[in-house]
């Protein structure tokens, strides 16, 4: 193994309460929709590409209107997260520090551009990660985004840590092992490894 790649939402932190506040404000101010986005609804959607999320939230809008509203939601989301960051899972920093001493660490997410940078800045975890890439930068599937990050960083045999079936599918596309974070938002039919807490990564790989 020559690297560990992480998902963000449901794997490194939970920002759904804060993001729900941001989305609801933008939807209320910019549409006539009675939709109230809840953290639980977001937990079921997070992990999907951002355009898919807004198509599912507001199917009555045109694709163009969905894209325009999503940009406003992202901007408000970032403002809210600057004030109130997401909730980190237990033993995050000590585990990342220990892992980073042995392996290069990376992030690949289906999030918008700027979200990973915000996460790293607000948590102070930037020094532990070598590189990151997201859907907002590539516009392609998570599997293809993983492959792009692998090529850029000359990775041959990394593992990916995520919390949804979408993450498992992305690993299959990229042909790398999947580590399923059972504490996260979703489920997965199969995985090379399973962890019940973030700290379990130390026992698994150190």
How would you describe this protein?
This protein has helices at 16-30, 39-45, 50-57, 63-83, 92-100, 115-123, 135-138, 142-152, 165-174, 200-205; strands spanning 4-6, 13-14, 87-88, 105-109, 129-134, 159-162, 178-181, 193-195. The model has no long low-confidence stretch (mean pLDDT 96). The protein folds into two domains: 4-14 and 88-205, HAD superfamily/HAD-like (Rossmann fold, 3-Layer(aba) Sandwich); 16-83. It has 206 residues and is of the alpha/beta class. The chain has ten helices and eight strands. Helix 1 crosses helix 2, helix 3 packs across helix 4 and helix 8 packs across helix 9 (165-174).
Write the layout of secondary structure elements.
Elements: E1 4-6, E2 13-14, H1 16-30, H2 39-45, H3 50-57, H4 63-83, E3 87-88, H5 92-100, E4 105-109, H6 115-123, E5 129-134, H7 135-138, H8 142-152, E6 159-162, H9 165-174, E7 178-181, E8 193-195, H10 200-205
Parallel strand pairs: 1-4, 1-6, 4-5, 6-7, 7-8
Antiparallel strand pairs: 2-3
Helix pairs in contact: 1-2, 1-4, 3-4, 8-9
Summarize the structure.
The chain is α/β, with parallel strands linked by helices and 206 residues long. The chain is built from ten helices and eight strands.
List keywords for this structure.
206 residues, alpha/beta, Rossmann fold, 2 domains, six-stranded parallel β-sheet, 14% strand, globular
